[in-house]
Amino acid sequence: MKQQTTALHSGYIKDSQGTMAVPLYQTTAYAFKDAEHAANLFALKELGNIYTRLMNPTTDVFEKRFAEVEGGEAAIAAASGMSSIFFAITNCAEVGDNIICASQLYGGTLTQTQHTLKRFGIETRYFDVHKPEEIDALVDDKTKCIFFESLTNPSVDVADISAITNIAKKHNIISIVDNTVATPILCQPFEYGADVTVHSASKYTTGQGLAIGGILVERKGLLEVLKGNPRYPQFNKPDESYHGLVYVDVPLPVFTLRIRLSLLRDVGAVLSPLTHGYLFKV
Predict the structure, then answer these.
(1) What is the pTM of this model?
(2) Which helix (H) or strand (E) holds 67?
(3) What whole-number distance in Å separates Cα of residue 125 and Cα of residue 148?
(4) pLDDT digits (tens, 9 = 90+) for 204-239
(5) Architecture of the domain defined by 30-279
(6) Sign of the alpha-carbon torsion through 126, 132, 134, 137
(7) Do residues 137 and 106 touch, judged by C-beta distance below 8 A?
(8) Is 177 left (phi over 0), alpha (psi -120 to 50) or beta?
(9) What are the tens digits of pLDDT across the range 12-43?
(10) What is the DSSP letter of 65?
(11) Which of 14, 19, 214, 251 could share a disulfide with 78, CB 3.0–4.6 Å?
(12) Do 198 and 176 meet the contact criterion of CB atoms below 8 Å apart?
């Protein structure tokens, strides 16, 4: 399908009522068939709805639709663009680690990386988006991601995505691109080597300024970067908070899976299903 058709129809299989519009499933909890069914869902032996802080049928359509428009494998929605950025970075880095960011960033992203993440023990190092060659000197064994915007907000600096992502690949580091201003219609960062994209869905996705939302997309095949990579032990060692799950051993898109089962679960920056009626105007 063309992008325009994908944006209108992808991700939604008509329900038993045959509705053309995606229903708003305004529910927090879901019925389990029995105790075994519930246990299987939590253990990922079966896939299905557990609780709306983790997933929701309306949200699921939005995530699938946006991932396809972006050209990625999977997506996870969040309460805002800033929460999507927070999830993307903290899925890679923790106390004692550092991240590398372009100095030309949206003001809220600058304050999050300069101040808030610093209080979490994550150091941010900056490079000029027009001088990707500065990145190499900033990388060490504690560097966990490189973050930049495809088109900066509000200065509209144009990043050389391939140049930056090639450096990330050389060091086996995750690259994250904020593609809010360009949108998937004008730019698809995965085609230029990016690993993860984030968006403020409050901007061009919704298009009319009536809803706050964010979304994060991971590229196809990102598992290859994460599996066995010493930079990312959180994906390769048992997660004590989730039954000892080793994320790289699960046959699902692992970057978004870890956000869903760990960060979204604990931080709770989730979209209300009522918001999605506005966000489907991708």
Answers:
(1) 0.92
(2) helix 57-70
(3) 12
(4) 888 878 889 999 999 999 999 999 999 999 999 999
(5) 3-Layer(aba) Sandwich (3.40)
(6) positive
(7) no
(8) beta
(9) 677 766 777 788 888 999 999 999 998 888 88
(10) H
(11) 214
(12) yes
